[in-house]
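User: Hi! I have a protein structure encoded as tokens and I'd like to know what sequence might fold into it. I'm fairly new to this, so please keep things simple.
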């Protein structure tokens, strides 16, 4: 009887597991590699600096606000998107760098 309870418990854990995807957005030539990106709730976006100078990726969007701080070439920082909505992403060092991330269910 104990074995059946353990198997049943494991079945619930496996069935309720959600999968998330990972996405890559580069910064090169003072621009994001994508103007728009669609992701799902729970997905992670890696922002990789491919320029020979610093970038500081941030968002003040209500859906997901973050500030990754300044980071050098070859560095990558990540954000997990946990709410549905639109997120405007910018670079604090290069204000003309902008992109939108649409987070869907």
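Assistant: Happy to help. Inverse folding works backwards from shape to sequence: for each of the 105 positions I chose a residue that suits the local structure. Here it is:
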């Amino acid at each position: 009887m104990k074995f059946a309870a353990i198997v049943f418990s494991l079945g619930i854990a496996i069935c309720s597991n959600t999968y998330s995807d990972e996405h890559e957005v580069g910064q090169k030539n003072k621009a994001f590699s994508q103007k728009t990106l669609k992701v799902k709730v729970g997905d992670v976006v890696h922002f990789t600096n491919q320029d020979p100078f610093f970038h500081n990726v941030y968002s003040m969007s209500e859906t997901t606000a973050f500030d990754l701080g300044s980071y050098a070439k070859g560095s990558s920082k990540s954000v997990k998107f946990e709410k549905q909505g639109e997120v405007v992403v910018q670079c604090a060092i290069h204000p003309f760098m902008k992109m939108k991330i649409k987070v869907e269910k």
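A useful reference point when you look it over: The chain has one helix and nine strands. Feel free to ask if any position seems puzzling.
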